[in-house]
Amino acid sequence: MPNLSHEPMPGQCACDDSSNCALCPPMNSLRTQLSLFGALLIALCIALGVVMATLYRSSAGAQVDTARNATQQSCNAIAARYAQSVSAAPLSPPTFAPQLDLLQVLLQLVLREAPHVEGGIWQSQQGLLAYAYPSYEGSGIKRDVPPAEQPLIVDIAQRATRTQQIQVDVVRGSREALVVAACPLRGRNQDLAAWTMTRTHVGALAAQRSLYIGFAMLLALVLVSAAWLRWILRRGLRHVARLETQLLHAQDDEVPELDRTGLRELDRIVDSFNHHRERYALASKQLLQAVQQRNRDQRLAALGRMTGSIAHEIRNPIAAMRLKAENALAAEPERYGQALRTIVNQIDRLDGLVQSLLALVQPLSLSPSCVALNAWLEERLASASQAAALRNVALTLRNEGTAATLRLDPIHMARAMDNLLDNALRHAPSGSPVRLSAQRTPANTLLLSVEDDGPGVPTSLQPRLFEPFATGRTDGTGLGLALAREVALAHGGELRYVARGAGACFELEIPWQDC
């Protein structure tokens, strides 16, 4: 058996398994492409999460919470530093001036660590005592408390000294929010309070801009992913359509060799198909050889049977002629004439046998011409009418295409139909009909049928009914049906026997050829 393993073509991948192949481009694999597409979708989800987290962090609520925490921590830090300073000072009553310096330094130290937070000290008797904004980004050092916010600062400081608890207020605007915190300063004086204040942008425009950017990125990724998937699918479907076209355009029972596609998964299928194609071709070749051998054996067997039949058919006339000749030689000369006539009849019988054998073994040479079907069928009945009258059998004709004209060989077809009619007349009981019918079938063929009400063909004879010398009559040669079948085959048709409950029916069918 030949080696049917697939040999890679130049420039093609030399491996069948994608797991251990460094020669095949990875992008030729549908699995790899879909894996990359899945990774892109995962990256898309991660990007969406990052964008949402960024939007949350830049939202107004998050910014206000951050500002609130910054002001509270700064105010608590001022209160803690103040408490430490008071506990470390001497017990003698301090003067007011050094206390202001202390408060100013304290504010500078604490607020320097709190970006964008300003603050001061408030006393119920003196009002706003100290102020600091060390992280101010203006042109110079800011030393004045914003006048617009002073009423809010005084109010929240009063509440802090009254409740001795930290107080926080948030004033929201269209573009920014003001966060103010105040906490009591616990020490020798119970009417002091520290306050801190910061401003934060609501961030609507920034958040909206980030949202638009995020959506644009997501849209771009989705469009790229969709385009990539569409390209993968179209490429795969295009290769599948090409393979389908190759299979559909195969001639008859030919199994075409499929071309590789460049996609590893499809190429594995193509290689398997081509491998089985080679196995199929080898099996078909072996089957053809077996059929040819079987046909040779059948021909030899048929030739053996035919040789025996020919020998029998020839021996009988020879024996009859020998007997007549011997009897004539032994008798008076007056009986020579009768003996010679018997010998001549046997010679005619042998000549007919030889002519039939020659017609059977020589290829038919057809001479088709336009034939009026109805008139031709009438001629066939007329030629068989004398034999039908002798056997008291009625001939009937049923033609569904009376006016039809078609092309066929009228001489050979007449010989075939005459043999079928003669066969039916020999088996039809006396007083019964023999029916000849013709019709044009939906498959565009001419179907000629000859039916009789005789005993039919024995089951044992049916398998070799159309072989030469296969006959159930002692006075027949069995060549008529064989000749009729050869005529049908020469016209591209077929002759078959149709078994019925009673009688026999032979159907001769040939392609219809219009003139």
Automatic annotation (TrEMBL):
Ranges for domain Histidine kinase: 309-514
Main location: membrane
UniProt GO MF annotations: kinase activity
InterPro entries from the UniProt entry: 2C_sensor_his_kinase, HATPase_C_sf, HATPase_dom, His_kinase_dom, HisK_dim/P_dom, HisK_dim/P_sf, Sig_transdc_His_kin-like_C
Sequence intervals crossing the membrane: 36-56, 211-233
Top-tier EC class: transferase
Catalytic activity: ATP + protein L-histidine = ADP + protein N-phospho-L-histidine
One Pfam family here: HATPase_c
Record's bilayer topology term: Multi-pass membrane protein
Cellular localisation: Cell membrane
EC code: 2.7.13.3
Entry keyword set: Cell membrane, Kinase, Membrane, Phosphoprotein, Transferase, Transmembrane, Transmembrane helix, Two-component regulatory system, Virulence
Keyword Membrane on entry: yes
PROSITE patterns found in the cross-reference section: HIS_KIN
Protein name: histidine kinase
Organism: Comamonas squillarum
